[in-house]
Amino acid sequence: MDSRKILVASGDYELIYQSRQALTDLGYTFMGAYSHHDSVHVAKNAQYDAFLVNMALRDRESGEFTARHLRQHYPDTPLILYTPEEVQASINGHAVASDYNLYSLDDAAIRQTVLQALHHFTAPLRTTQTMHLRGRDDAEYWAVEEVQILLALTRSLTEVLDVNEVLNRVVDAARELTSADEAMILLPDGATNELYLRARVGMDEANARNFRMKADDGSAGQVFQTGLPLSVGARGPLKLKTEYFVNALLYVPILLKGQTIGVLGVNNVRRQDVFNSHHEALLLNLAAYAAIAIENARIHGQSVQRARELKALVDASQAINASLSLDRTLPTICEQLVRALSVNHAEVYQWSREENVLRPLARFYQTIWRPGSEPTLLINQYPLIRAALREQRPRLVRAERTDSVPERAYLHRAGAAAMLVLPIPGDYHPFGALLAFYAHPPRFVPSAETCQTLQFMALDLLVEHIDKGRKLTQRLLNIAAQINELCGSDWCEFSSTVPGTDALTCHLALGKVAWAQAPTAIVNMNDYSDLVEVLETQNLINQHLEGDTLTAGVHALLELTRGQALLGLPLVYRGQTQGIVLCVDSESSRVFPEREIELARAVVGQAASALENARLLHDLEESLVQLEHAQSRLIQAERLSAMGELAAAVAHQVNNPLTTIVADAQLLMEKTQRDTFQYETLNAIYRSGKRASAVSRRLLAAVRPQGNEETPPRLIQIIPTIEDTLSLVKSHIERDGIRIVMHLPAELPPVLVVPGELEDVWLNLVLNAHDALVGRPNPVITVYAEYDHDADVNMVTVTDNGPGIPETILTDIFKPFFTTKPVGEGTGLGLHICRQVMQRAGGQIFVESAPEHGARFVITLPVQKGG
Questions:
Q1: What would the CATH number be for the domain defined by 139-301?
Q2: Which of 444, 578, 740, 841 is an S-S bond match for 753, by CB 3.0 to 4.6 Å?
């Protein structure tokens, strides 16, 4: 047998293992080096017949490739380069010249390449050097390579503070030292009192999944409880507690300060070799190194975790206190809890003691469901969603407008006012659906082009989600944020169709929302005494779906939030419970550990103070707004009073000449022959004078809160009032190139109104339309009247095709003295008078307008009803 030595340098443990497997029957000895520094040190202190080097291995500080260093300092030693396919592009330009290259780890390739490299090697074979070291029971001779493995591992462990890396290096060294088929580390699970597989090498995935046993049972449990090694073998295959058969095993305790913290073990599954005391001594020494490294990694991990928690608290404090606006502070509280606790979903609820209900105030979604636990939506139960998917057309569903009871109930449960259903197209049927939710009715609906863009983005998101192992990546979060922005929605849910069924499976929910007014998604506490007790005693909730202590109220909250585990902390300010904050894990049923609970308490404590400050500011702003409104009403009342006095003076001054005009016109008409031009002119003067006199009287009535008591309402025909008013101003309007189009029936049912007041309404509306259309292309004023049989009202609309009324002032145009006209050209009383006339008549006036699409004023008057 050849006893040539090969140095295998690689951070890939599988390379060392596969090399041993492929060449062990040739009698070669191997030395494994796990870093650049280990490789340099080992090569310097021993002579090797060949180097097998992973080309990707390099010095972390200088960037020097290990293969290049070995080639430069040991040019006479054959160099075999292993270049994995995934790193070939990254080392382009840094390749090292070698006659022997390895591109795969199958046994045949390794064996052929190594034998080719050693084919011309003529140095005499060496006998294995030994060192005198103390074993467990007696003095034993250890091979130099074994000592070097332990020393190299010790040095490498000092460089690593990641516990996963530490454990992987230990199990790899254990298998190499004992030539075992498998090596593993078992650590205790404090929550279940079980030993679970923490690191492994050589064991397939199926067996690794089942390798879990009670900490006080089985071979590993015996070692863990007694703290003594256990070696079993030479008696045929052994059946372990995990239904797993091995030919031989050796388990040793990992001891730290006299306490067993884990078990290090090796198994022979395929080989018949048994483990001896020499192997036991090697593993005991290795376990001693491992215990120290594990403890160092644990302490480092705790330091990193505490630093991360401190940073999370600082970030949360800064974010929560960055704004005193309730609609910003509330979602920020939820977002910071999601980030600090690594949960998926957080909500803030307000507790109304009088009604004994919980009302959601804010919510933050970054929710992903594990496969098999995703919520499903049965499409057949929701006709509007089914129609949207069948037709593959977007559909906006509004809670207050839809006649579909299932969709309305679904929106109420979600706390949404509206939902955009956007099918995600597939080859033959929809791939899924994007459901965009709105806490308040949306101001706009995405255009057809935007919907098409949204469909592609949603499809991209779902494919990315599935391809990335159903993980929540930053790219997914960015896509979801863009989708919410394009939709104008608060949060979105992304679902796929289930083949062969009529259901949608929800995979992701992303977004945030704050409610200015409490939505319908309330929790009635009368049904759940356990939740009332939590709030009254200010205890916390820490339960999950699979727990034995799950209470009815918590189960209802988990169903409402669609979670697997729930942490609920009462929101307390100055000793009083104001509500509760829910942190939801939608991926796993778990109990939240004490450190996460304390972190959540710290965040919620800051949130309570910030929330109270935001409420105080909100109340102060509301008080200021109410004060401003009261002041404005006082000013308007004073102006109206002054206008009343002015109107009385003007009416007195105007009525005298008007009386003369009307009387003289009437006398001249009596002396003029009818059917003449002069008679018609005098009649127009007479009518205009009478109208001017009536206007002055109504001006006085308009500024009196009690209205005009002198003139009682009468049954009036609407059509003549419209025709008479338009005849007076038609020539004035048409002079500016504006057409008047009338669609008037011959007659409408009469309405009860003060005579002459309807003419004021038509005149104000038509003149306002005229002012908006001056200078516009193709200006048209349309007057339309009809009788609505269902509502039993007459409806008159005055429409123009002008620039429209800006949305920002739509709610102000009926207020007294509000005008957009220049000073001296408008009083701001026209539309206010129109509203007063409608109120006295028992009718209504409202406006519909859109930028560059004109304005449409709608008047409804009840038939034979009035003030």
A1: 3.30.450.40
A2: 841
Helix runs in 398-551, H state only = 405-414, 448-467, 474-487, 529-537
Inform me whether the pLDDT recorded for 122 exceeds 50: no
What is the per-residue pLDDT for 832?
84
Instruction: Give, as one character, the DSSP assignment of residue 124.
Output: P
* Residue 388, pLDDT above cutoff 50: yes
CATH of domain 5-127: 3.40.50.2300
The pLDDT of residue 700 is above 70: no
Q: Given this model, what pLDDT does residue 1 score?
A: 43
Q: Cα–Cα–Cα angle for 529, 535, 537, nearest 5°?
A: 95
- Token pair listed for 629: 């409104």
Candidate CATH numbers 1.20.58, 2.60.40, 1.20.1260, 1.10.287; the one for domain 612-710: 1.10.287
Element (H, E) at 687: helix 677-702
Question: Which residue, chain included where needed, has tokens 């009698």?
Answer: 27
Query: Per-residue b/e over 378-398, b at no fewer than 16 CB within 10 Å?
Result: ebeebebbbebbeeeebbbbb
Better pLDDT: 52 or 106: 52
Supply the pLDDT for residue 154.
60
Reference 595, options 395, 199, 304; nearest CA is 304
pLDDT at 127: 35
295-309, 357-371, 595-609: segment of lowest average pLDDT: 295-309
Picking from 337, 339, 328, 408, the residue whose alpha carbon sits closest to that of residue 361 is 328
Give the confidence band of 126 by pLDDT, cuts at 50, 70, 90: very low
Residue 131 has pLDDT above 50, yes or no: no
Helix (H, G, I), strand (E, B) or coil at 43: helix
With cut-offs at 50, 70 and 90, classify the pLDDT of residue 132: very low
State the pLDDT at residue 220. Answer: 83
Lowest mean pLDDT among 94-103, 364-373, 822-831: 822-831
Structure token digits, residue 510: 């992303």
Per DSSP bridges, beta strands 739-743 and 50-54 are unpaired
Pairing between strand 29-33 and 5-9? parallel
SS3 (DSSP) at 815:
coil
- Residue in 96, 6, 97, 11 with CA at minimum distance from that of residue 60: 11
Tokens of residue 122, six digits? 């003529």
Token duo for residue 127: 């006998």
Return d(Cα 191, Cα 640) in angstroms, integer.
Answer: 77
Return the CATH fold of 366-514.
Beta-Lactamase (3.30.450)
CA pair distance 824, 461, nearest whole angstrom: 59
* Residue ranges, CATH 3.40.50.2300, the chain: 5-127
Cβ pair 787, 794 in contact under 8 A: yes
Residues 744, 190: Cα–Cα separation, whole Å: 85
CA 738 from chain centre, in angstroms, equals 53
- Torsion, Cα 322 328 334 339, to 10 degrees, reads -50
Confidence of residue 128 (pLDDT cuts 50, 70, 90): very low
Confidence band, pLDDT 50/70/90 cuts, at residue 799 = very high
Q: What is the 3-state secondary structure (H, E, C) of 720-733?
A: HHHHHHHHHHHHHH
| Contact status, residue 366 vs residue 554, Cβ threshold 8 Å | no
CA distance 618 to 614: 6
Helix (H, G, I), strand (E, B) or coil at 395: strand
What is the structure's pLDDT at 824?
52
